C-alpha cells in the first residue's frame, strides 16, 4: 500500500513561496522602515570570495555592514581633521619639534614602552 501524506493547508499567501527559517530570522530582526536599493558592484575576486564565505548571512548583508562601518570611519576621520584644523586656527600649527616628539611617543606606544608614555 503506497504511503499517503496528509495535506496541510499552506501557511503563506497564495502565489508567495513559504519563507525559510533563515529568512524568518532575518525578517524578525530587519527594520522594515529601511529601504533597499539594488546596485551593481564590481569586486576584486578575493573580496567577493571572502563575502561569500561568511556563513549564515547574505553577501548583500555583509557588504552593507562593511560599507556602513567604512562610511562611519570616514565620517570620524573628517570630523577629526576638522577638529585639528580648529585647534590649528586657535593655537597655531604644531612645530617640527612637537611633531617629532609626537612621532617618538607614538612609536614608543606601538612598541609597548610604558616608560616613554609616562614621561609624556
What does this structure look like?
This protein has 120 residues and is mostly helical. It has a domain at 43-119. The chain contains 5 helices and no strands. It has helices spanning 21-29, 45-53, 59-91, 96-111, 114-119. The protein starts with 20 loop residues before the first helix and ends with a helix.
Summarize, please.
This protein is mainly α. The protein has helices at residues 21-29, 45-53, 59-91, 96-111, 114-119. The protein contains five helices and no strands.
Features of the shown structure:
120 residues; 5 helices; 61% helix; 0% strand
The H-and-E topology, N to C, reads as HHHHH
Spatial separation of the terminal alpha carbons: 88 Å
Mean pLDDT: 80
Determine the strand fraction and express it as a percent band.
under 5%
Shape field: elongated
- Report the structural category: mainly alpha
Count of runs of 4 or more consecutive helical residues: 5
Number of β-strand runs:
0
- Rg result: 27 Å
Biggest sheet: strands, sense, closure? none
Helix share bin: 55-70%
Topology summary:
Elements lengths: L20 H9 L15 H9 L5 H33 L4 H16 L2 H6 L1
